[in-house]
Amino acid sequence: MSATPTLEHPAPAPAPEDPNRIRGNSVRPGDRIFRGVTRGAGILVLLIMGAIGAFLLWKAIPALRVNTVNFFTYQKWSPDNTPAKFGIAAMAFGTVVCAVIAMILAVPVGYGIALFTAHYAPRRIAAMLGYVIDLLAAVPSIIFGLWGLNYLMPRSYGLMQWLNDHLGFIPIFDNRLGVYSRSIMIASIVLAIMILPTVSAISREVFVQVPRAHVEAALALGATRWEMIRTAVIPYGRSGMISAAMLGLGRALGETIAVALLLSASFTISSHLTEPGGITISAAIALLFNESGAIGIGALIAAGLVLFVITLLVNMIARLIIERRRDFSGAN
Fold first, then answer.
1. ∠242-246-252 over CA atoms, to 5°?
2. How many domains does the chain have?
3. Model pTM score
């Protein structure tokens, strides 16, 4: 005998109706088509990535078989010699260091520009500044490389010498050669300028999407402009900020032409980042591909495979961070 609903034992709420269902158990045709298209697109992306990885591995295996040293720890690059000796250590070091320094320089500035255009600047100035930033993102890489080679590098000697004179006790600023051209530090500065528009533009769009009610509520409670940003804007847009930084890091890791113009093919690991030397994986491929033999090309493809894996790991880590922070962010 069923119990009669009372105030102490209310009747259970009815299950919410599925918006995708109409008339019995049928699914809307548009929803079915859209679901199939999106699922196919996701599967296609995975297949393409798997095909790229398989191709790189297939082309790299012959060179890796004849290599007589450890590919991951050896620094020098002589794949076409007899016996073949080549390793990824120096190139991986240069790639990671350039990208990290570029991120340290660009990400705080990019966030600051995004906050200024979204919540501080007058509407007209914000629109004009946003247009300039978006236009800067469209500048080709070779233009940045030529600018860094012909303008920034000659004018950076004074700064690099000052760093050596006053902060030389820190290894990254110590310059033992007295030469300040074609260094990882200069390449990192150019990379920072290149990724700045990406970080700033995406972060600005995230900050603009913060609900106006959140902003007005914080101000109504007596918060200052910075307290409003710290308590309402940044928590809501944290996932988008991380995504913007990771997209900038992806470009910094894979940038080729600009870095190839600013660095020489020096396969050494050095903590003195203001001295000439250092190379990244992408720049080494661009500089050495035309002069490499069959084994050398296979070795460069193996280096490209390492860069491919590094990029995948960076994006996977970024995705994990975003998922872990999703519960603490207002953006879903």
1. 145
2. 1
3. 0.82
